[in-house]
Amino acid sequence: MKRPIKLMVSCGSGIATSTHAASIVQEYMNEHGIPVSIMTCSVNDLANRLTGCDVILSTAQVAFDPGIPVFDGLPLLTGVGEEELLEDLQKTIQEITEKD
Fold first, then answer.
1. Among 6, 43, 66, 73, who pairs with 60 as Cys (CB 3.0-4.6 Å)?
2. At a CB cut-off of 8 Å and minimum separation 6, what does 28 contact?
3. What is the CATH number of the domain that holds 11?
């Protein structure tokens, strides 16, 4: 069995919005049989929490280049473009999994 992809979900405070976005992503990935390990944090703590992470999803602007894929999580809050975001995230996760 392949290792779960580590996904960091961040928002302004690292509490409500990131938790909401993380639950949507977790449910979607579970439905599609894709193992992910999801953690949440504030965007200010992001740089210090990336060790071992494969992908970032953030509802706030990431002001630095983390060297891993970064997804804009706003569609998970508005519903506009949510399905496309989840499909793109799934595709990226599968590509990372295939490289490992």
1. 43
2. 86, 90
3. 3.40.50.2300
Tokens of 79: 């519903």
Q: How many domains does the chain have?
A: 1
Write down the catalytic residue from 5, 7, 8, 11. 11
Q: What range does the domain containing 18 cover?
A: 5-99
Non-local (6+) Cβ contacts of 50 within 8 A are 8, 56, 66, 68
* pLDDT tens, residue by residue, 20-67: 999 999 999 999 999 999 999 999 999 999 999 999 999 999 999 999
Supply the pTM of this predicted model.
Answer: 0.94
